Amino acid sequence: MGGMVQSSVMDLIGNTPLLxxxxxxxxxxxxxxxxLEQANxxxxxxxxxxxxxxxxxxxxxxxxxxxTIVECTSGSTGTxxxxxxxxxxxxCLLVSSDAFSAxxxxxxxxxxxxxxxxxxxxxxxxxxxxxxxIETSRQLSQQPGHFWxxxxxxxxxxxxxxxxxxxxxxxxxxxxxxFVQLVGTGGSLRGTAEALRLHDRAIRIVAVEPAESxxxxxxxxxxxxxxxxxxxxxxxxxxxDLVDEIxxxxxSDAMAMSRRLAREEGxxxxxxxxxxxxxxxxxxxxxxxxxxxxxxxxxxxIKYLSTEVYKEH
Length: 313
Known about the structure:
Layout: E1 18-20, E2 31-36, H1 46-60, E3 68-72, H2 76-88, E4 91-97, H3 102-110, E5 114-118, H4 127-140, E6 146-148, H5 156-171, E7 178-182, H6 187-199, E8 204-210, E9 245-249, H7 251-265, H8 271-287, E10 292-297
Parallel strand pairs: 2-10, 3-4, 3-6, 4-5, 7-8, 7-10, 8-9
Antiparallel strand pairs: 1-2
């Protein structure tokens, strides 16, 4: 694609690089490859979902020229929807919270989105907060000329990650033994895993969730400090039959790994990406040196410079 002039920012979504971790993986472990989703235009994998939602809605007649796209967001999906809305000629109304980074809120506004902020309990991400965000966005979407993206329930997001699975298969030349991905809305894990399984049903699929709120593995819902994951309840797009294993990672371990990724690998990512690598390394130890584990770098660390992930470290 290098050297070509693209027609739209939408043409820059996808085809992200795949990179081996060189210093963080101990000897005797499986090879760990990370898909650099921060190479997407707004710096996260959510560009894929936003484009799929908008395109499918427009094609089906649910989204009309000049309409306003409405969604609740921890920041990345909202930023992606705001960018896609600009490119496709829509407006954007986003519901978010002070629980999420100031950088993400500012990024959404910079792209022209109108923001409605829901106050959190001391910046804690809880099931109650998530449900309030969802219900607020649902109510706002009832206005004429407004379309609710509804990322938690909308199956169109899955098609946005089909290319991601196919890219991984192609880039590894079919040499992938396991795919590791955390669960937020559940769309990226499911969409990517289903695409990979069409190539090879033996690929191990591993879900990641916060240790502070391990509801997918039958634990108790709790406050979580990793933005974008751990909704505190079992999300509608979650498909347990697709998953071979669930690994829980603490926020402190995830954040520490994010800092190690930056300082030891030169990869600048958020805590969700750190959680993915913690889980991938645990799996890599068990699978051994002949295996290949692939995971995602969800987004860029630039979104979190003011947060506890990078502040004062």
